[in-house]
Design a protein that fits this description.
With 365 residues, the chain is mainly beta. It has two helices and 28 strands.
Length: 365
């Protein structure tokens, strides 16, 4: 075998072992088609925002935030309300279709309350407008062979006394009656600490569960074996691209050195980090926290989440709701990478006008 052939073989096997990036597909090239508003014909008068996704036991899921049902349009009398809801995503034929779960056209509450949380709302909402909310903001990561989903969602008080309380680690399963969510760790990370998992989660190249947090103007990451996800003492925290080490102690919340990348002090927004089989590296797709209705994208330069990342580029600019003084900007922008396991397409979703979920499909070229 010639030296050239030997070198070619070494490079090929190195790409498999070390996750080198398929440079011929990067920077990403794409076309995008707008699919429209998502809806469920059996629940025609449901209005909600948010929307995070995952696939559990082969079912495509989407979990929403505040969900209200009316007798007609969005301004009509309200017949039902929940802090969150869950639906199957059935695809785009011809527009995004959901399958909800509930009665009398009112979706069920998806994430159960603790008794202390429901008591707080009962004692305060009518008097002062304060209520406890669980607004799912990070997508579901499948573990245990795809039959269990895990996610971390924030719990807060909304109203004049608004404050963060803690986040909660949930597990999601699916059976013949539909999807079910359990508060596996009811109070996971207390307020005042970096809220790992609130921004996102994924499975890393090593097979570990990665929890992501928007902090210090960028993204920070913690890792753990999926079997130990409920035990905070087992987590390790990335110290940043300078040292490229993991520590048993979280970094300071305002640290920029511990970020996998830094966007700016305004960064928060929403998004997802995920493995792209088409690009053979991790992608990050996000709203960056500015009111510009725009999806941005970065990619891992060396195939690892805890490594070097590209600069951001514009992926897709969404259209804001016209004549909507309440929510003139879109938010809750997410990628939904598990909906197409081939990785050749990517469904983007976002909250439109504070009441609808819109979807567009990215086709990678």
């Amino acid at each position: 075998m010639t030296n050239v052939n030997i070198l070619s073989c070494l490079l090929f096997f190195s790409s498999l072992v070390f996750g080198l990036v398929a440079q011929n597909t990067l920077p990403p090239k794409f076309s995008i088609a707008f699919n429209g508003n998502g809806s469920d014909p059996a629940f025609p008068h449901v209005y909600r925002d948010g929307g995070v996704s995952g696939v559990v036991s082969g079912k495509k899921l989407m979990v929403f935030c505040d969900t209200k049902t009316t007798t007609g349009n969005i301004s009509a009398p309200m017949t039902g309300f929940t802090s969150n809801s869950i639906a199957y995503y059935l695809g785009d034929d011809p527009t995004p279709q959901f399958q909800d779960f509930g009665k009398n056209e009112v979706p069920n509450l998806a994430v159960p309350w603790l008794e202390s949380e429901s008591n707080y709302t009962a004692e305060n909402f009518d008097k002062n407008g304060n209520r406890v909310v669980i607004w799912p903001g990070s997508s579901i990561t499948a573990i245990h062979g795809g039959n269990t989903g895990v996610a971390v969602w924030g719990v807060a008080v909304w109203g004049p006394a608004g404050k963060s309380l803690y986040n909660t680690l949930v597990t999601i399963t699916v059976n013949e009656s539909g999807p079910h969510i359990e508060r596996t760790v009811p109070e996971f990370i207390q307020a005042g600490n970096i809220q790992y998992g609130n921004w996102g989660s994924t499975i890393g190249a090593s097979g570990k569960l990665l929890l992501l947090a928007a902090s210090g103007g960028g993204l920070k990451v913690a890792r753990v074996d999926p079997n130990d996800a409920t035990d905070l003492t087992k987590y390790e925290y990335y110290t940043g691209p300078t040292n490229k080490t993991w520590s048993p102690t979280p970094p300071p919340s305002n640290s920029t050195e511990a970020n996998i990348f830094t966007v700016g002090k305004w960064f928060g927004g929403s998004g997802d980090v995920f493995w792209s089989p088409f690009h053979e590296t991790f992608l990050c797709v996000y709203f960056n926290g500015l009111p510009d209705n725009t999806f941005y994208i970065r990619y891992a330069l060396d195939g690892w989440v805890a490594g070097s990342w590209s600069t951001e580029q514009v992926l897709y600019k969404t259209a804001p709701a016209p004549n909507d003084p309440g929510d003139p900007f879109n938010y809750a922008g997410h990628a939904n990478p598990t909906w197409d396991p081939s990785g050749r397409t990517l469904a983007l979703s976002w909250s439109y006008g504070g009441a609808w979920t819109q979807v567009a499909t990215v086709s990678w070229l």
